[in-house]
């Protein structure tokens, strides 16, 4: 394990353009429940899962009812996003922000909707599945801070007149094209991909490591995950450092810092 931490630090220092891909495993140490794990939100509450599957359609058909559900005026959903908004970053988030500040990591692409990478200080973050801190217009694509939005009249509306929804990408909702395009160009550009806390099985996000692996040229793909994943088994990643991101990433940063000091 220690050897792999050193190897990852060396690979990062030798990289020209490293990016990080992150998922639920990154935020569980911040108390954010995952959705698909054994104790996940959907795994333990099938009714909530069924509702979640209908949420995008509900927005399209009746944006007022969508907002009433999201705010907990009807149903029990209201406190869920609120809890997520109050979560704090953990050492794994800070480690990635530090790798960016050191000029090594150029971009973080996350599936997490909690905004914790930005809270931890990461500057270039692509929130692939959106953010609970943001609302978005599905018509013109404009985004606004959730905090600044007046919710007295539902649904809140964009300048263009269309109803706003949470930036969070619901089931059956397409990934916003700007984020998707940028993520793909980052995946094709990087020479090192650090995959943290995700098994990358949810598509189209799962394409990103595969695009990096199968494009021409050399790319190093390093996994930091609690368990082996399809990426490990299919040989998409070069190696897996098995454990918690909140423990392993700070150790990698420590070695990088030592290596960079004169
Ligand atoms: Zn609009």
Report on the structure:
The protein is 40% helix and 15% strand. The protein contains eleven helices and nine strands. The chain has a six-stranded parallel sheet with strand order 3-2-1-7-8-9, sandwiched between helices. α3 runs antiparallel to α4, α6 packs parallel to α11 (245-260) and α8 packs parallel to α9. The mean pLDDT is 93. It binds zinc ion. Zinc ion binds at residues 137, 139-140, 142, 158, 160, 162.
Q: What layout of secondary structure does this protein have?
A:
Blueprint: H1 2-14, E1 18-22, H2 41-44, H3 46-61, H4 63-70, H5 78-86, H6 91-101, E2 105-110, H7 116-119, E3 125-127, E4 134-137, E5 143-145, E6 164-166, H8 177-189, E7 192-196, H9 207-214, E8 220-225, H10 230-233, E9 239-242, H11 245-260
Parallel strand pairs: 1-2, 1-7, 2-3, 7-8, 8-9
Antiparallel strand pairs: 4-5, 4-6
What are the defining features of this structure?
15% strand; 9 strands; alpha/beta; 262 residues; binds zinc ion; three-stranded antiparallel beta sheet; six-stranded parallel beta sheet
Q: Quick recap of the structure?
A:
This protein is of the alpha/beta class and 262 residues long. The protein has helices spanning 2-14, 41-44, 46-61, 63-70, 78-86, 91-101, 116-119, 177-189, 207-214, 230-233, 245-260, and strands spanning 18-22, 105-110, 125-127, 134-137, 143-145, 164-166, 192-196, 220-225, 239-242.
């Amino acid at each position: 394990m220690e050897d792999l931490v050193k190897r990852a630090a060396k690979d990062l220092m030798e990289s020209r353009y490293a990016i990080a891909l992150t998922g639920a495993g990154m935020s569980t140490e911040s108390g954010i429940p995952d959705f698909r794990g054994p104790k996940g939100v959907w795994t333990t509450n099938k009714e909530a899962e069924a509702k979640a599957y209908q949420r995008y359609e509900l927005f399209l058909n009746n944006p007022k009812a969508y907002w009433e559900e999201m705010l907990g005026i009807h149903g029990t959903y209201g406190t869920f996003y609120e809890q997520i908004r109050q979560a704090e970053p953990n050492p794994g988030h800070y480690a990635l922000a530090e790798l960016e500040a050191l000029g090594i990591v150029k971009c973080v692409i996350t599936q997490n909707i909690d905004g914790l990478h930005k809270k931890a200080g990461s500057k270039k973050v692509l929130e692939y599945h959106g953010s609970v801190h943001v609302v978005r217009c599905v018509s013109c694509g404009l985004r606004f801070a959730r905090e600044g939005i007046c919710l007295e009249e539902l649904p809140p509306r964009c300048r263009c007149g269309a109803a706003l929804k949470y930036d969070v990408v619901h089931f059956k909702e397409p990934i916003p094209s700007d984020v998707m395009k940028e993520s793909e160009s980052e995946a094709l550009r990087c020479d090192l991909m650090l995959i943290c806390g995700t098994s990358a099985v949810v598509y189209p996000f799962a394409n990103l490591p595969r695009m990096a692996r199968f494009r021409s040229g050399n790319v190093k793909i390093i996994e930091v995950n609690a368990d082996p994943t399809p990426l490990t088994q299919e040989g998409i990643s070069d190696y897996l450092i098995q454990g918690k991101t909140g423990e392993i990433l700070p150790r990698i940063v420590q070695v990088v810092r030592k290596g960079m000091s004169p």
